[in-house]
Amino acid sequence: MKPQVSIIIPVINEAAQLADKLNALQTLRTRCELLLVDGGSIDASPAIAKPWVDQVLLGPRGRAKQMNLGAQHAQAEVLLFLHADTQLPDRAIDLLASAVAQGTLWGRFDVQFDSDQTIFKLIARMMNLRSRLTGIATGDQAIFMTREAFQKVAGFPEIALMEDIALSAALKRIQKPSCLNAKVTTSARRWQQHGILRTILLMWCLRLQYFFGATPDELAARYYRRQ
Fold it and tell me: What percentage of the chain has pLDDT greater than the value 90?
């Protein structure tokens, strides 16, 4: 029997936390298939993942390329793209299945961080509000869509950065997203490592530059240079 949802997880060098993250998804495997797409890890990520998922796929580095590869191998008619450092809320599959049954072609969850600091609560609130106002979702919000919608926009644009923004822009021309109130929990690790204010300014700067025509390759060079 085909799975209800295919959960596609792109990874690169996530060995330190991967087993715990995948363990949290095991109760879903009666209804979902888990596909982990490794983009050339130099650690043990593929070997660690193998017992916890239905397929480990090896592909070129690049989150968009990895997610597209996962979609090619997925069996379900609903695709959920999940970052390795993001945890789904309770009843996530029920909630997105209900949305799809009501005619939703694509959507995302609200997001929260795995930190009790007030600043992270504010950042999450602003991310969720911005997403509702613009119809643009980010990968941290666990974007989901029907296979039909994915194929209509030809999948994720295989660009170096902003693939989630570009995909959302294409999808919202078909239909506004379903913005589910249930919250995925994502890691605050990147923000804490690189500085909260610095990360906020960097992300806003990159998005503005993208809006005004900077290429994803240019943005990726700036982003990774500052990491």
Answer: 77
